[in-house]
Amino acid sequence: MQVSILGAGGVAYSYAAFLASRGHEPTVWSPSGKRACELRSGMKLTASNALDGSFAVGVATSEAQATEADVLILAVPAYGYRAVLDRILPILRDGQTLIISAHLSFAALYLSRRLSERGIDCPIVVWNTTASTGRQTGPANVSVSLLRAKVEMAVIPDTAGAKALALCQELFGDRFALVSDMIGVDLGNLNPAVHYGIAMFNLTRMELAEDWPQQAHITPAVARFLEDLDRERLALANAFGVQARSIHQAYAVPGKIEIAPLAEMMRNIVATRKGVNGPKSLDTRYVTEDVPYGLLTTIRLAEMTGVEVPLHRAGVTVFSSLYGRDFTAENTILPEIAPAFASVDKLRAALRNGWSAV
Fold first, then answer.
1. Which candidate, 28, 145, 222, 230, has a CA 20 to 30 Å from the CA of 342?
2. What is the CATH number assigned to the segment(s) 191-325?
3. Each residue of 88-99: pLDDT tens digit?
């Protein structure tokens, strides 16, 4: 199957390799035009670690080429969502399926709103995390650190759920679980909370460009902080009546890493698998993406239900001070979909049926 990947970073490269290994025909598109030059010249994409091999990958050089496929996967940080979507929206066509990988800030509603303005009907699939993780180790090389065993997904409209599930399984294998409520999918994305803790308490390492394995630096004190953050998130999920995996469930690997206090789980992870290095710059999506698009969205949901999330609020305030910028003003998605947050019922209706419900 032909699949266009909107993005050309580490995750996008891991998707391209993953799809090609399963016999599909992936094409990557660098919105900036600065990446994938070597692939465009004919070099194969070489993957290592959890996935090994060299694969032929197509490269799109324009919005038109990037939207030729019937399936499009948005694989850019959340701060790039709107810019990329605005470029492709004028040329999308009925029936294309759009997948938002590691969905944040209910960007699917923004896409649904813009599609409805054009009178275009496209299923919108969202995942609570990435199907694989990867870091570019060279211009045509990607280290795939993980092929996830489980990814939760939801679809607008929800009536397209079964067909979308079959499509995702055809592309990436039997690793998807269809969830009826997209609120549960978004609250199931643990990146904002985990990255908050990792970045906050290792900020000087980032600023000084040190090499540091991030799991090893989730010390018992940081682990306690992450567990407290998790309790806020799970209380919010409970207020909405949705299921969301705990941070312990997210890190557990049956038979290898069993559920236990998070500090103990981290010790076992460090002892049994190769670690991933943390960011080496303050310019990291752990903050610039996850604070305005993750923490702020959680706070907005908390305001709707009256759930107190003081640690999430503190993160936005403290990171704004550390970075000398107002992260509360940097989310370009939430203001565009504000009418959907008039009530819990309206938000749920929009996430089931699309923007027409708003």
1. 230
2. 1.10.1040.10
3. 999 999 999 999
